[in-house]
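Following the same procedure, backbone shapes were mapped to integers, yielding the entry below.
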Amino acid sequence: MSYNVLTGSLPSSLFNLSSLCTFSVHKNYLSGSFLDVDLCHSWPRLQFLSLTDNKFTGQLPYLSNCTELVILSLSQNKFVGKIPVDIGNFKNLEELYLDFNGLTGTIPPTIGNLSSLKSLGLTQNNVKGSIPRDLGRLSRLVKFLIRRNGLSGPVPPEIFNISSLQVIEASDNALSGKFPSSSAVRLPSIEFISFANNKITGHVPSYFANFTKLHSFQVKNNSLYGPIPKNFGSLNLLETLHLGGNQLTGDPGVPTLDFLSSLFNCPFLKELVLSENPLNGTIPNSFGNSSSPLQLFCIDKCQIKGHIPKGIGSLKSLTRLCWANNNLSGNIPESIGGLERLQRLYLGNNSLEGCIPDELCLLRNLGELSLQNNKISESIPNCIGNLNLLQKVFLSSNRLTSSVPLGLWDLENLLFLDLSINSFYGNLPPSLSKLNAIQEIDLSQNQFTGNIPSTIGSLQTLSSLNLSQNFFTGSVPQTFGDQLKGLELLDLSFNNLSGAIPNSLEKLKFLNYLNLSFNYLSGEVPSGGRFVNFNAQSFLENKALCGRRDHCINTDSHSPLLYVDKVWKRKRGKTPSSVEQLTTVEHIVISYQELRRATNDFCESNLLGVGSFGSVYKGILSNGTTIAVKVLKLEMEGAVKSFDAECKVWRTIRHRNLVKVITTCSSPEVSALVLQYMSNGSLEKWLYSHNYCLSILQRVSMLIDIASALEYLHHGQAEAVVHCDVKPGNILLDEDMVAHVADFGLAKNLAKNKEETQTRTIGTLGYVAPEYGSAGKVSKKGDVYSFGIMLLEIMARKKPTDEMFAGEVTLRQWINVSIPDNVLEVVDAGLLSIEEGRDMNATESILVSILEIGLTCSEEVAEDRMDIKDVVPKLKKIKLALQH
């Protein structure tokens, strides 16, 4: 019954088939649980059971008496709970697959009793703890699959001594320790090894080169160090070698990375990824012979220096060359034209000089050309129009001159074009209308002249157009508003444009950023559509331009000129290298493509968390700045409203205890906030960590940080901001454990002198003030209530939604009846254990003082609650007492 569309639960009549030996219903839509079912009693002869890829829930089926079971596959369901200890009773079991469920707990050591087991699959669950040494007794094990769990500790050396093992897939865990010594390793049959995305340290042992059947070795993103072994080149079956994201080097004192010459001799090597290692050397000129099957060659961010070897052209099968973010110098060799199958060429952020060779036009399969931030001069080859598969061209920040070849405007598949910060000149031709797939165009900081072609208006897929800092004349084309329906960014500043701003621009309902400053525009600024969101910064230094109430834009004020001076210096200077620098200028533009690159195309391994309206990813910009990218699920009801609310708040606020927003990015595919990265994650994660306990002083310090942020929101500006969703999950911690308030998706602005407003949206259950639910009232007092509940949670390490708080008993009531006499019974027991050296009477007194603040803040009646500005000094006084 596989590959059908069966739904519902299994019929009870099935459990009467006592002679059943095989039962398979994988790839259906079956659901239900097995809580009251003993499958072994119903099917005592069962040998093969597959419930794979359905929607079964609850605990794993009770199977301990199925003594004849040979194959058990329960993967891709929604099973929860622990792996039962008695699973070790299946003496005949050969294949056990529990992958892609929600299983928790640890790997039971009793699995080591399954003497016939050949395949063990636990991929993508929530299993934690260490790998039991008992698994080393599985002498017939062929496949060991534990990827994407929370496993920690060193890998037992016994695992490396199972001679039958062919596959070890242990990536995406928290495994640590070093690889065992060669005397403890015996893996003659091994074909696939992956420990990627763990915490393994030490050297990469040279004995891996003895595994003659090995075809894939992946240990990227660990803490490995030392030289990369030269003898890996002897692995005649090796196809994939991923060592990126470590601290690996070449041989000490040897400038040439000689191990590469050895690897190029592997006759089947297709993928070589060494990115983000401090290799700090030059690439040898020898790349093996022209029959090399190498397809992916990535050494970006490796401190590579010297020239690109002329022998590069011998890699005829190469499809992706990633050598960006290094110290490469010299010219791009003409031999690069030999890479006839190349699809992506990444050489950006180096010190390459000379011209772009005409031989580049021989790369007929090229889809992405990335040469930005080099010293490349002269012109773009006229033959570039021959590369009709090009989708992305990034040539910004070079020394390119002359006019843009007409062939470039004929590339009908082009999606992204960035020629900014060069010295291109001449007019833009009407023929650029052939770019009918284009999404982003950046020609800023060049010397283009003439009128802006009205045919740009026909580029209906265009979301971002930056023509700033050129010498364009004439008017802003009317067609922009009539036809560019998806336009989100329009920057025409620092040109010689004249005439009126077309009223048609009011039709651009997705326009989030507009800059028409420093031109010769005249007439009245449109007042409809998105123009209601644009302030004077969008229209500075246009002598005859007037505002919406017949007041001309102030062009004599010193402050706008100062602002523009900062922008100009930033654009002409170096790229900022930190979040602090990024946020000093208001309108930083980071494209959707840059966010994709920064997050590795929003890869799951970069996922930091998931919320109601979207997901947050870690990313690294091309200048090395680490960021967090909050991507909204636009299909979710309320997501757009949440995004708009956050943007509205971030436009006006700035405080040391608020997460800094670098910029926003909005396109038809995605809306995103680019945020300051908080390396220590959320307060919720730390509160409920099994590995760490926050001290009283740490908790009080964080509460001061949070209260200070709320005080600023409530009292620090003309219009108060109410957060509406204060909880530990929305408190993020930086590298110094300083707390920052985040997530303003539900925030509301209160009009001046207004104490409350109405809303249909509410915050998180357990933290929401009573008046929210009863009357939909949003006020500063509501935030104070949430803060009070959170304070109690922080000190008690109990969520307000904990199952113990049922019926009339709440977290607040539980604590209220316990102080002052029984305060030690309600605070976090772990907190008390780390405060043992402190005077207990004094500690009790301090704890009571802290909890009383939480109780007062969370009073049922809003008027009885403290004001947040009174909370801060009280907490600071408590902190002072803790420090003495």
Summary: Confidence is low (pLDDT under 50) at residues 548-587. The two ends are 71 Å apart (CA to CA).
